[in-house]
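User: Batch of two.

Assistant: Item 1 of 2:
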Amino acid sequence: MLLLGSTGSIGVNTLKVAKKFNIKVEVLVAGKNIELLNQQITEHQPEVVVIADISDISKVNHSKVYAGAENILKVIADSKSKLLVNALVGFLGLRPTLKAIECGKKVALANKESLVACGKFIDTSKIQAIDSEHFALWYLMQKRTVQKMIITASGGAFRDWDLDKLASATLGDTQKHPNWAMGQKITIDSATMVNKMFELLEARWLFGESIEYDAIIETKSLIHALIDFKDGSTTAHFAHANMQLPIAYALDIKMDENILKHVDLLKIQNLEFREIEKNRYPIWEIKEDLLQNPNKGVIVNAANERAIEKFINKEIGFMDISKTIIKAYETGFSMPQSVEEVFEIDKEVRASI
C-alpha cells in the first residue's frame, strides 16, 4: 500500500495494522517529523519516500526520497500498489485522492477535505472511509430502509466552558481535548464543531441524499454512530476510540482478527448525550443548508482553513473562526461545475478572507 500522512496519528495506527496483517508498505509520505519518519523507514522498508520540504531530504535515511505535492502525485501514478491510505490533513489531500482513483486504486480515506470540497466529482464506490463515524455507519448498514443516520461528537475542548469565556479562548486552550490527543487542526475543528459538520457532509456523499443526517454529543466517545431505520428501530455502534478498527477493515475486509477490547457496559455504568447548541457552536447555523447544498463544502473548507491560519497567527479570536466561515458561506460564490472549478473557488475564497 501507499500511506500518505505516515507520521500523524492515523498514519501511525495504519502502520501498526499493516504490520499485524503483513501488508507491504511501498510508499511513505510524511511532513516535517523526520525523526519519526526515519523510525518508520527502518521498520517498514518502503521503496519510496516523499516529504514536504526539499531542504529536509538529506535528513531522511533512504536512497529514494522526493519532496513536494507534485512528487506525491507522481509516486501515486508510478506505484504498483492497489491501495492508498490518505491520512493527509487539509485541502492538499484532495489531488492525491483524485489521482489514486484515476489510477484505479482503492482509497482508504481519512482526508475529510476530499469529499467535503469535491464530493460531487469523486466516485465514492472507490472510497472506504476510515473515520470512525463513517466506518460505524457502514458497519451498521443492513438491507433495511434507513431513515436517519446520526454521528456522535465529543463536544471538543470547550463543551463545558462558560459561554462568556469562549471569545478569549487561546490556541493552547483549543488543544485540550477531553477524550484524546489529535493533530492541531482537527482539534481546533473539534472545538468549533466544524469537524462534525464535515463528517455529516462526507456521510451525505457516501450514503446518499435520501437519508436524513444529524449529530449529537456523546461525552465518552464510545458510541460512534446510530442508525434510525424506517421500521422504528435504532442501532448503535459501540467501540473504544481507536482508529485501528476502521483501518483494519479498510486494509483487510474479511477481518476475523481481534483488534480491540470490547466495551464493558457495567464499567461504563452511564452515558451522557447532549444537543449541539448554536450558541456554543455557531457553525451549526448553516448545517441544514449545507446538507441541502453540499457543493458549497468547498467554500466552508477554504474559509475554515484560512480562518484557522489567522487564529493561529492571533489575527482573530476563537469565535471569529465560525463567523468567518458563515460570512464566506453567505457571500454568494459560484458553485463548482468541474474539478478545476473546485480549485478555482478554493483560491477565491481564501483570497477574500
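Item 2 of 2:
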Amino acid sequence: MVKNSAASLLTSVDDLFTTQEERDEAKRETIMEIPLSQISDFPNHPFKVKMDESMSDLVESVKSYGVLSPVIVRPKNNGKYEMIAGHRRKRASELAGKDNIKCIVQDVTDDEAIILMVDSNFQREQLLPSEKAFAYKMKLDAMKRQGMRVDLTSDPLGPKLNSRSNLELASQSPDSKTQIQRFIRLTYLSQPLLDMVDEGKIAMRPAVELSYLTKNEQEILLNTMEWEDCTPSHVQAIKMRQFSQEGKLNEAVIQSILQEEKPNQKEQFRMPKERISKYFAPGTSSQKIEETIIKALELYRKRKRESER
C-alpha cells in the first residue's frame, strides 16, 4: 500500500504552503495513457480474472476498438501505479498485445481505494460467493478504519455488525444485511470448501454453519465427504457445528452425521473402508474405487455367464 499511516498524522509541507483549492485540484482525477508494465494489481484483489468466453470476447473487442471505458488507478510512491478497477480490461489488453491503457488516475487513500475497488466490481452481473465474501469483508474493514464502529459478536448467521455500519454497507450493496453477514462468514472456510460453495456443491446456509468448524475439523470433513461421496445438508451442518462447540467433533461423529438419511435420499450400499482399502493404493479417490469395483463385478458376471454355457 502506498500511504504511510504515520505520515498521515502530521501536516505535510505541501499542506503548509498550498491553498485548499490547489490541494483539491491535485486530488481531482485525470485521464492519461499509461504503460501496462507500470500498473500493478490491487493487493489481495478478491475478484477473479477468468479466462473464459467473456474474456475472449473482450480481447477481440480490445483488438478492434481498444479499451472503451478507462480503468481506474492510483499513483504509487515509486512513480508507478496500482490498479483499482479494471483488472479484466488490463488482462485483455495484455492478451491483445497492447502496450498502454487509458486510465483515470485518482489520488486516494488505502481505504478509499478499497471501497472504490469493491463498489466498481459489484457492478458486474455475476459474482462468485467467494468474491462477494472477501469483497464485503475488505469494504467493512475499510469502513471501520474510517471511523464507523463495527462490533463483531457471535450470531447464528455470522458476525453481528453494529447497526449503523451494517445498514450503511447494506444500503450500498445488492444484498441484505443478513446475507452480507452470511457472505462474510464464508471467509472462515478452508479453500477447498469455499471452492465447493463457488461450484454450487455446498449451499450457502450449510456453508455458513461449517465455517464455525476449526481448520482441522474442516480438513477431516473434506476427507470424509470424499469417502462418503456426499455433502452435508443444512441440518447436518448445524449438528456438526454443535458438536464442534462442545469439543466432541471427530471423524467418527462426522461420518455418522453424513450417513444419516436425508429427505428424498436414494438408498445407498455402504461398505467399511478398512475391508477394501488393502486393494487400493493410498489416496485413491472414492470415485476411482467405485469405478474399479463396478468393472470387477461386470467382469465377474461376464465370466460366470460364460462358465454356465
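Residues 286-308 form the longest helix (23 residues).
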